[in-house]
Write a structure and sequence with these properties.
disordered N terminus; 7-stranded mixed β-sheet; mainly beta; Neuraminidase
Length: 535
């Protein structure tokens, strides 16, 4: 979720109402900064300063929701502090389908006497044991030396052990954090209690020489086996970009110890956002790599790794080029965005493996190939049409099909997808979807289902029962930059999540803005972690 350094900069930190966006490049060679972690995201409340996180005791729920039979359920529950929840991840326990664990960036904001706002971000485990009707929030970190964690990633192994990946931040001062460490916490009691291991240690900070570790993901299998992948952005003087590569590390004892991380991105050194998947007895990892510094467009790559050691078994294989460069999207505050919006976005998706055929894989992402390019830099003059894109392999990642748009004729933007194969071998894809609104403003959450295995043709169904509006009236990350779009959110998070269930369905977990919240005297749309089920 955070970024190490802005490469395309907004001309001013605040843009006047009605003023168009303009950008200027600095001396960093990357057209876009692709690191994604929580601390460089916009603050949910301007002027807030990081403080100590609320304490919690392992095994004791911080709070529990009221049991609900609704189609959409908010997994957050009341606490002394308030704050948004975004960048959702979810996993289903294969030994108990009623047990699911959700993760999110859990912001805690407290209004102190005198009007000062204290902010912390400490990830919690959103746990259900009744199939999603009731959720309890448990602390993942207690008595922790980390003042903030984020970028959640969840997985269960075949024996029901849970793995919760995050980044961990330590603060040098109120507004200056060291580059994060990669952490994986484990639970053997369905998400109630957790122990944490540091996989890799960052160095320096975003304005210095060092290593900014970023966006970890986890996958697990068997009894006690798991892999974590993450990016390492090597920074030079004053935080300038040097290179970025992908690392992996494995455990075979339930997360007690992990192997020495190894580079798996081969000779590619503009790599970021890696996702691993288990395909029978094999492990594959997808990631993006910026290959065209003139346009900023990326290639999706896939590499197979050794399940025992985590080492790459060969060179990465190109899947396709993504249409996600710096003139393919409008720009707001130095970040890619969409029509009449200022929240940041990107092309990233994930890789999925067919449980009925381990050689059958799919990579899913979103890009602007069906939008008008080059796009105007001002999002309030642009008309955008982002679509979900899919490529598949039937020979274990050696060859990949030409990219297919999930619904190139659909109006509006579809973005931030996540994919999983169900038990019948059909690809399922969850994503934010603005096709429900002719103005291309509000979004719902959609799950697409492949009509037959390997067909790459889909039916779609809306999971959300209420739509969300990120273009105005928001309480968190709010920016007013254009008349009629006051308090637009600048941050929805960078991804959502779905997971397949043993009964052939999928569960979805997304950032939802339907509920208004009042904080420090102002009311607006919140950001909550919502759960739903797709047949």
């Amino acid at each position: 979720m955070v970024r190490f350094k802005l490469v395309i900069l907004a001309a001013a930190a605040a843009v006047a109402v009605g003023q168009s966006f303009s950008v200027a490049a600095d001396d960093n060679p990357r057209p876009f900064d692709n690191s994604r972690n929580a601390l460089n995201a916009p603050s949910p409340e301007p002027g807030s300063q990081f403080g100590l996180a609320p304490s919690g005791k392992q095994g004791i729920a911080l709070c529990t929701t009221t049991t609900s039979l609704a189609a959409n359920v908010n997994t957050d529950c009341a606490q002394p502090s308030k704050g948004p929840h975004n960048e959702t991840s979810i996993a289903v326990n294969p030994t108990d389908g009623m047990n699911m664990i959700g993760g999110a960036n859990d912001y805690q904001l407290i209004l102190n006497p005198g009007g000062h706002v204290s902010e912390t971000i400490l990830s919690q485990a959103h746990v259900t044991t009744d199939g999603g009707k009731t959720w309890s929030n448990y602390p993942v970190f207690s008595n922790s030396s980390y003042q903030a964690t984020g970028d959640p990633a969840l997985a269960f192994d075949g024996a029901g052990n849970a793995y919760y990946g995050t980044l961990g931040f330590r603060f040098i001062s109120f507004k200056n954090a060291q580059n994060p460490d990669v952490l994986v916490s484990t639970s053997s009691d369905k998400g109630r209690t957790w122990s944490v291991v540091r996989i890799a240690q960052g160095s320096g900070n975003e304005g210095s020489v060092g290593d900014l570790l970023d966006k970890e993901y986890v996958a697990a299998w068997g009894n006690g086996n798991a892999i974590v992948t993450y990016g390492d952005f090597r920074l030079g003087q004053k935080g300038s970009f040097v290179s970025s590569v992908i690392y992996s590390s494995v455990t075979h004892n339930g997360g007690k110890t992990w192997s020495t991380p190894q580079i798996i991105s081969g000779s590619l050194n503009e790599a970021f956002v890696a996702t691993p998947v288990v395909a029978g007895s094999r492990i594959f990892v997808s990631f993006l790599n910026t290959t065209d510094l003139n346009t900023g467009r990326d290639d999706y790559e896939v590499v197979e790794v050794n399940p025992t050691t985590g080492a790459a078994l060969g060179s990465p294989v190109k899947v396709a080029t993504t249409i996600d460069g710096f003139t393919d999207y409008p720009i707001a505050f130095g970040r890619q965005t969409y029509q009449d919006s200022v929240f940041r976005t990107w092309a990233a998706g994930n890789i999925a493996a067919d449980p009925t055929n381990p050689a059958h894989l799919a990579v899913v992402w979103s890009d602007m190939r069906n939008s008008t390019t080059p796009a105007p830099s001002d999002p309030y003059t642009a008309k955008t049409n982002s679509d979900i894109i899919v490529s598949q392999s039937t020979d274990g990642g050696v060859h990949w099909s030409s990219p297919v748009s999930l619904s190139s004729t659909a109006d509006g933007d579809q973005f931030m997808p996540w994919s999983a194969y169900d038990t019948s071998g059909k690809l399922r894809i969850g994503y934010f979807d603005r096709s429900y609104d002719s103005a291309n403003h509000v979004y719902g959450y959609t799950v697409a289902t492949e009509i037959s295995s390997q067909s790459l043709t889909f039916t779609t169904a809306q999971v959300t029962t209420t739509l969300s509006d990120p273009t105005k009236g928001d309480r968190w990350f709010a920016r007013s930059v254009h008349t009629g779009f006051d308090f637009a959110t600048a941050f929805l998070g960078d991804y959502s999540n779905i997971a397949a269930t043993a009964d052939g369905h999928v569960v979805a977990y997304w950032t939802d803005m339907r509920e208004d919240i009042t904080f420090a005297g102002r009311t607006g749309h919140g950001e909550d972690a919502y759960f739903g089920r797709a047949s």
